[in-house]
Amino acid sequence: MSSVAQPSEPRRNDAGPDQNQRVASVEFFVVQFLTGLASAASLFLVASGLSIIFGVTRIVNFAHGAFYMLGAYVAYTLTDRFEGFFGFWGGIVVAALVVAAVGALLEIVLLRRIYRAPELFQLLATFGVTLMVQDLVVMIWGPEDLVGPRAPGLRGAVDILGLAVPTYDLFLIVLGPLVLGGLWILFHRTRWGVLVRAATQDRDMVAALGVNQTWLFTSVFALGIFLAGLGGALQIPRNAVTHLMDLSIIVEVFVVVVIGGLGSVLGAFIAAVLVSELNAFGILIFPKISIVLVFLVMACVLIVRPWGLLGRAEGPARQPAGLSIRPWRPMSQNQRLIMLAVVVAAGFAPFVTGDYALTVLAEIAVFALFAASLHFLMTVGGLASFGHAAYFGLGAYGAAFATTMFGMPMIGSLLLGPLLGVAGAILFGWFCVRLSGVYFAMLTLAFAQIAWSIAFQWVEVTGGDNGILGVWPASWASSPATFYWLALAVSVIGIVALRVLVFSPFGYALRATRDSALRSEAIGIDRSRVQWAAFVIAGTFAGIAGALFAFLKGSVFPDNLAIPMSVDGLVMVLLGGIETVSGAVVGAIVYKALAIWLVSQTDLSKLVLGAIIVLLVVAFPKGIVGFAEDLLARRRTRADDGGSAARTAPAKATAPTSGSGAAPIAAPKMEAAR
Amino acid sequence: MSTPILEVENLSKSYGGVHAVRGVSFTLAAGEILALIGPNGAGKSTCFNMLNGQISRDTGSVRILGRDTAGLRPREIWRLGVGRTFQITATYPSMTVRENVQVALLSHHRELGRLFGFAGARHHAEADRLLGLVGMRDLAERPCGELAYGDLKRLELAIALVNEPRLLLMDEPTAGMAPKERVALMRLTATIAREQSIGVLFTEHDMDVVFEHADRIMVLNRGSLIAGGTPAEVRNNPDVKAVYLGEGSVYGGEAAA
Amino acid sequence: MKLEVHQLNSFYGPAHILFDVDINVGPGEVVALLGRNGAGKSTTFRSIVGLVARREGRILFEGEDITARPTHEIVRRGLGYVPEDRRIFTELTVEENLMVGEQPERTGAPRWTPEKLYTLFPNLGEMRGRLGGRMSGGEQQMLTIARTLMGNPSLVLLDEPSEGLAPKIVEEMANAILAMKNEGLSIVLSEQNLHFARLISDRAYIIESGRIRFGGTIRELEESPDIRDAYLAV
Description:
heterotrimer; B: 257 residues; alpha/beta; Rossmann fold; 2 domains; six-stranded mixed β-sheet; four-stranded antiparallel β-sheet; 9 helices; 33% helix; 25% strand; C: 234 residues; 10 helices; 10 strands; 35% helix; 27% strand
């Protein structure tokens, strides 16, 4: 089932080699179809939970996969301890309830603080939770795969057209539509459901009619998490429980909701069936390119219906990433001189530090360029990509191919390698810019994961998990000092180029599409073309950074384009300050240095990193540079007018709900603007 | 009044069997200010969005300066010389007032594809001239996100004038403005329209604005035009009173300064 | 007094919007809050029902201090709020919209049922199963008022009920508001349309730049053209 994702879930029901001999028979297709339907059940449960939560809270809960995984682990423990019919089925239900309770707790502690934050921050915060859960799960249950019991009463198989179909699969096939019907009744025939649908559209209005929306949200979130936990718990008779199942399911769920339409439960059902069947048959018919099949279907759906089969056109992002009300200015002469001095000082590093430090500094330079390229797309373009590592990784693989396959010299590889990243950005970007907001984020993530799967599975070319080794720099650049200078030079040139772009006419066009799509169309700007170009530009610079990275490490691995790498980039931009022009570079330097230090200090780096991400989003949403700019601006205001009573109210004025800390751009109606 | 700026013939649109607009025909001459009024849901917005290219039409033709706009997207219609302001202002909050106008000028001169050169230095004087026209020269350096609502409406007018339009489409140009600002904005629009012989089509809910500033008024009800003529004619038309104006107890006339 | 607002100050972020606003509403009264766009009318209403995060001063409803209460609790005490720009649930039918507003009956306030509301707003009765998004602006405005009445409030805040409506619909709206008054409801409405406000109100306040500049009967307002001209005039 998880061809899109990480192939880490061994199927227990695969009958093995003897089935392959019967590939062509009609009976076999029927059975394969049923297996696909059974797989769809869990996928639907998880995806519908995500959709329901999104509908009301407008949060795409990245941690949904983590709750799916928790459901499986808790169910494993419960069914392991309490055997028999009631032990098993009770354990499944109790596991889902336990997970729902944990979800409710998360909603109360964390999500309530970020409901009004920009989408990007919510995705990041819930991703931070995912990271933390990954480490916690390994701490509690250990790193080994766990195999749960079979379902009492449904252990056997039913004979269909002469082939054995597990009874449990039939149970799952029936369960899916039952849950779908139950949810429909819940939302259309109960007052709670009507309130939820009302809150989906306008939560403040629901409160203004006397409904306690705080608890309404908590209950919706708990329901969504219950479905995720149940989906996970129901998997234990079919698949082993692993600590990698969270990311694998979340990517599949993203694909499902993008196809079905975010917010639509019925859409989630249809898409879950579609994706599961594509996987079931894809593996049989095109074993090597089963990934591509899902990708093609998703692409077709998006061309015809950009908001999914049953989705509705979303308004523009509540607040596009990077939208600032502090107009950007190019650097003054003095600032340029300071920057020049900083770069020159960095160039002297080899004379004062050792080889290890230089390798670290070269890596920081590479990531500064990577972060700057993401910043260009995300802050200048307002397009928060959750899969930017794809172009970094493709650039790295491109350089590795050029070196190892075609024996190209280093300079040639550095020039040609990034072209693979460019090609990827051209292809994926064309689809992505058709969407915006969370859809854009999810689609970029899905594409990155597809690129990852190809790198992972196409062993003949990419070496799979073993990567490609022997990508060493030319002899003239092999000393740490020269390679550092090379990395620094490329990085500085790239960052300067991106900065020039920001203030170029194209940069203005890009910011215009971010600020107001409506106005841009009305003054002759072709939004999707501008954003596509920005996507390719960002992908190009990420590819250059990736190619450098390949030579820095001497090797490339699928990790280079995996989700954690994409998130590293996001955290760098966020840490530096999302509304600033120079934040990304500062963020990259601080984050990379911190991360390298952290890994050397603790085994629980995911737990710590996750906590840092959550803390950043909740407490310092403006990042380092944004915080500094605020301080400066405040000092300047104070100097300008000794405090006109109207404008300089005490600092506690900020609303407690505005976890985003974003300036009140759309302050409640225009009264505030006066 | 010579060649019509805008010729609309038998324009229709339906959604799911409901006729939003049916058989609407009219023309607009250079320098003329034409108001489109009618109850909510009468089809004003649909009409407007068809003229603008935001939604496609089922039947009928729209000619702007003699050119049929069938199949053109909003940005292509803009290139024909159509300026547009929105009911809820759409501007660029992260840019200064001047930069807002500069982006439109860059687009007009087809320079937005350039990857280098400082955009803030281009068309500086032209942007300031347009801002001066709407009385916003002093606000040029201000961040647009900090402007008062009435100023945003004037900024939209400046942006709409960037491509030397022959046709201005203004959707509720004075919505959300104070009475004094309404009069000022409409007078300004009228002056510019006459000087540059621009045809203006606007929708509006404030009858005081409509009756004072429109040369001609069309009344839309349930998708069809039910009346058209001078303000006085429309005001006294019994059909219009029945579906829209009522007995006149809730709008002024005597309130006009 | 039904509603007493004492020295209300409100803020959006660092911006100070309302300054020492005082408003009183007696039982069964219709009071108009007049002012230009941006004068602070909506902020006053939003502050009363607790939708403005930071507010100072004291707000008493039926003698009880509601200043620190969350919005839903304030509403459940019988203080209904109809926001500007309607905010109908477009994906819900008329009946479902009314269901969202439903609250238990309370003493001292008129009791509303869907049937009774369909007589007050006959249009709504003819389209009970229609989706909110498929209604005209005037019908939506009626529905948003009906939806709030389903909470059986004893006082209603109506934010710009005539905004964006055809003059003819505005006349219908005036009649509906008078009918609500006859049921014993206290009503506060914010308006820019002086013609409309004086048709239905007993008293009026004028707000300008977040400060109350005038308070008195409609007659007093009519007799002081200088005040009208200073704060409302064209």
